[in-house]
Description:
This is Mtc1 family protein. The protein is an alpha+beta fold. About 35% of the residues lie in helices and about 25% in strands. A hairpin with a 2-residue loop joins strand 2 (about 50-55) and strand 3 (about 55-65).
Amino acid sequence: xxxWTWRFETAGGTEVQPAVQPEEFxxxxxxxxxxxxxxxxxxxxxxxxxxxxxxxxxxxxxxxxHAEEAEAAEAAAxxxx
Length: 81
C-alpha cells in the first residue's frame, strides 16, 4: 500500500523539522486535507514550502506556504483602473 508523506523545507529547499508532526497518510486526499488544516502552524514554525511524496516519488512541490501573502502583495502592487 502506498504511503503519502510531506517534506518540509525552507524557501531555499533545506529540509526542516515541522512544527506539527504529521502522520503517514494512506491517500493523497488525506495528506492534502492535513496540510490544509495545519499549514499556518507549519509556516509559523519555520516551514516555507512543502513537497508531497507517494512512497519515494515526488508528486508535486515545492508548494509555498506563503501563497496568501504573495497574492496580497501582488494585489497591492497592481495599478488601479
